[in-house]
């Protein structure tokens, strides 16, 4: 049985792989495990299906002779360095090395493809937020106070951007006082979105203690900002109950959060400067308002002094005139009262005198009529009295104090008492 050496086999494979049709071919792929060593850029090139499952993989390399120019070209166009997760279009040539095996040697890159992919992803997120009706919720949120002083900060503890923000904010020349508290979160990589969302939940739980929430991250590779191109994070920011202020990356960096946050600023220090400016603007307004109030008050006081002085001069003259007019009115009123009294009171006095004169005669007549009426009634009572009846020969018989009108009322042996006109008789019934 004939055999070949491993080297011979590798050379045979190389002759099959390194053919004209496999050289300088444009390939689209997703970057993974990007690393720069010895000036060379090594990477894994991946292809995934619609379900996200890996269907192809190959090693790629950009030799040190080309990497600086390719890297600078790519960064100038996209604002990003080569990093895992990016979708790229590369011009590659298939290579089979006896020791290092199969690889794709990169000779050029099309940044427009990557830029288009990033923009497409961002566009899809924004369109989804719009369909769900939440795109502009935080951006249109009204501030509870024109001067935010209670600031909830979401950033990485110890990060340079956070340090710059705090130093700028708390050493402001106007000596404005701010209350800040850090809600730490991971600000880079795949863990960043859920970490930032967790921090937002903590702030929301005590939303009444804060005027706004600030999300800040300092500069770095633009690829590090891919964490902020996340739908779940964007949806949370869009629906957050407090105004969200964004200060992420460099001046040229833009993420999807910049489109949905209430206020977008370029850097963490720019956020601090903006907060300070709000306070200084309020101070200026208060100072100007105070000056206007003082000016108006001074003018009013000056005018009132002049009016008082004028009134003081007129007061004696006005008082004398008022007294004389009042006395004249009183004299007229007294004369009128006297005249009216004479006309109205005299007839009443005459009437009262006539009534007084007629009272004795009327009283005597009334008394005589009452006396005659009493005499008449007395005679009638006398005629009808029991005594008068007895005087005419009649009597009254009683048993046990009861008058007897029927013989059946009396039992044999009972004592009868008979009353006559003069005297009383007692007898026993048989």
How is the topology of this model organized?
Elements: H1 6-17, E1 25-37, E2 40-48, E3 54-62, H2 67-78, E4 87-97, E5 101-109, H3 111-131, E6 150-155, H4 160-170, E7 179-184, H5 192-205, E8 212-217, H6 231-238, E9 244-248, H7 257-260, E10 263-265, H8 268-384, H9 386-391, E11 396-399, E12 402-403, E13 415-419, E14 424-428
Parallel strand pairs: 3-5, 6-7, 6-8, 8-9, 9-10
Antiparallel strand pairs: 1-2, 1-4, 2-3, 4-5, 11-12, 11-13, 13-14
Helix pairs in contact: 2-3, 4-8, 5-6
Structural description of this entry:
There is one protein chain. This protein has 430 residues and is α/β, with parallel strands linked by helices. It has four domains: 104 residues, OB fold (Dihydrolipoamide Acetyltransferase, E2P); 158 residues, Rossmann fold (3-Layer(aba) Sandwich); 38 residues; 40 residues, no CATH class. Helix content is 48%, strand content 22%. The longest helix has 117 residues. The mean pLDDT is 83.
CATH superfamily of the largest domain: Hypothetical protein af1403, domain 2
CATH architectural type of the largest domain: 3-Layer(aba) Sandwich
Helix content: 40-55%
Q: Any low-confidence stretches, pLDDT <50, length ≥5?
A: none
How large is the share of residues in beta strands?
15-25%
The helix tally amounts to: 9
Average of per-residue pLDDT values: 83
Tally of extended strands?
14
Q: What overall form do the CA principal axes indicate?
A: elongated
């Amino acid at each position: 049985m004939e055999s070949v050496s491993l080297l011979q086999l590798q050379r045979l494979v190389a002759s099959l792989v390194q053919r004209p049709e496999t050289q300088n071919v444009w390939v689209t792929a997703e970057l993974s495990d990007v690393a720069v060593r010895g000036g060379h850029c090594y990477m894994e090139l991946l292809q995934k299906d619609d379900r996200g499952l890996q269907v192809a993989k190959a090693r790629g390399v950009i030799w040190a002779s080309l990497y600086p120019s390719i890297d600078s070209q790519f960064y100038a166009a996209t604002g990003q360095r080569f990093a895992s997760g990016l979708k790229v279009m590369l011009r590659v040539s298939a290579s089979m090395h006896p020791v290092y095996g199969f690889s794709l040697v990169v000779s050029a890159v099309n940044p427009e493809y990557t830029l288009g992919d990033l923009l497409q992803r961002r566009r899809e997120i924004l369109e989804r937020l719009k369909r769900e009706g939440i795109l502009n919720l935080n951006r249109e949120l009204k501030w509870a106070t024109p001067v935010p002083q209670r600031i909830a900060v979401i950033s990485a503890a110890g990060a340079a951007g956070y340090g710059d923000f705090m130093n700028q904010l708390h050493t402001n020349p106007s000596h404005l006082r701010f209350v800040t508290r850090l809600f730490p979160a991971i600000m880079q990589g795949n863990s960043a979105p859920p970490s930032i969302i967790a921090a937002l939940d903590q702030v929301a739980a005590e939303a009444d203690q804060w005027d706004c929430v600030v999300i800040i991250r300092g500069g770095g590779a633009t690829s590090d900002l891919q964490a902020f191109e996340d739908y779940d994070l964007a949806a949370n920011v869009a629906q957050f109950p407090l105004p969200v202020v964004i200060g992420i990356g460099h001046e040229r960096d833009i993420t999807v959060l910049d489109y949905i946050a209430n206020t977008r600023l370029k850097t963490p220090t720019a956020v601090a400067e903006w907060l300070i400016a709000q306070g200084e603007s309020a101070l200026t307004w208060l100072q100007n308002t105070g000056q206007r109030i003082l000016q108006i008050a001074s003018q009013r006081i000056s005018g009132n002094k002049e009016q008082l002085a004028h009134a003081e001069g007129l007061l004696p003259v006005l008082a004398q005139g008022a007294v004389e007019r009042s006395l004249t009115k009183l004299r007229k009123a007294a004369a009128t009262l006297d005249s009216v009294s004479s006309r109205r009171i005299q007839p009443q006095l005459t009437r009262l005198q006539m009534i007084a004169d007629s009272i004795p005669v009327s009283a005597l007549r009334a008394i005589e009529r009452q006396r005659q009426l009493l005499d008449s009634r007395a005679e009638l009572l006398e005629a009808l009295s029991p005594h008068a009846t007895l005087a005419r020969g009649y009597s009254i018989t009683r048993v046990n104090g009861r008058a007897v009108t029927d013989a059946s009322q009396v039992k044999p042996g009972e004592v009868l008492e008979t009353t006559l006109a003069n005297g009383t008789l007692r007898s026993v019934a048989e």
